[in-house]
Amino acid sequence: MRIAQIAPLHEAVPPKFYGGTERVVSYLTDALVDLGHDVTLFASGDSHTKATLEAAWPRALRLDPSTRDVLAPHMLMLEKVRRVAHEFDVLHFHLDYLPFPLFSHLNTPFVTTLHGRLDLPELQAVFNTFPKAPVVSISDSQRLPLPQANWLDTIYHGLPETLLTPQTQIEPQYLAFLGRLSPEKGVDVAIRIAAQSGLPLKIAAKIDKADQRYFKMEIEPLLSQAHVEFLGEISEQQKPGFLSGAKALLFPIDWSEPFGLVMIEAMACGTPVIAFNRGSVPEVIDHGVTGYICEDVQGAVGALQRLDDMSRTEIRAQFERRFSARTMARNYLDSYTSLLLASRRPVLRRAAAD
């Protein structure tokens, strides 16, 4: 197939540090190329990919403070895609609802993966207005606020199998928190869980501008506790050691997380996940196999006492079965095929492999 992947411009593909959507787009794009498909990636010019890169903006917007209107570059990218849409079998967007008005009127099949939260009231009118725009969810839980949307499939995220691997020479000694420092992620709860369990906690996290006040007022005063170490934002290369050195990853979220990429990152390293029962957690974590699903702090503290019941080798094996990038790519190919069949459009170029 000839496939276009259209990524957000906020981060490079893949991002240098934090950036869940752009990271998944990178993994998916490269996996599709590995399966023999002709893929073009529309992204920022500082992106790196196995596909053909079409630079829609010189560099990631996060690294370009001179760009104050971040919508403008995305509008230019959409127009760039529109002009060549006929050259592709499928257009795959990762831009929320931005493509709906323009691409609903073109003949080229398109699909949008929705990566974010969907419980915002204003989204109801959007999806009522575009009821036929095909969309993919990243968990069944994510769909619940928008039952009227044209759901094509639920496809879980995946990671390249060699990206994060268990570092078996490292002895797990602490609890880990990885991700973004925002109220809904529950880092303050993670600090409480660690304190009650008697284990040290290492926090590797990004602080967005929007969360800087929250960090200063609510979290920074907690970091002086003896059992807490704040590392800041870490790179992809640092993750295997960080996660392999953890007895467990704490994921005490206080919202309906659409997926939670850090959970499968931990699983890739053989590290169990202690997660609160919110959003996608019951779909991602196999309770008692790859981690424990808890309702509150006391449940999490109790779960930490049962970590010896789990096999880190089996956690890694379960990751390979369920959450590899190849599995994700094959699932998307099934969705692309169903779109093509529904549109009765011939394939422009078939895969050389797979």
UniProtKB/TrEMBL annotation:
Pfam families recorded: Glyco_transf_4, Glycos_transf_1
Enzyme Commission (EC) number: 2.4.1.-
Domain Glycosyl transferase family: 171-297
InterPro entries in the cross-refs: Glyco_trans_1 (IPR001296), Glyco_trans_4-like_N (IPR028098)
Keyword Isomerase attached: no
Positions of the Glycosyltransferase subfamily 4-like N-terminal domain: 18-119
SUPFAM superfamilies found in the cross-reference section: UDP-Glycosyltransferase/glycogen phosphorylase
Signal peptide: none
Keywords, ordered alphabetically: Glycosyltransferase, Transferase
Molecular function as annotated in GO: glycosyltransferase activity
Listed name of the protein: N-acetyl-alpha-D-glucosaminyl L-malate synthase
Originating species: Paraburkholderia nemoris
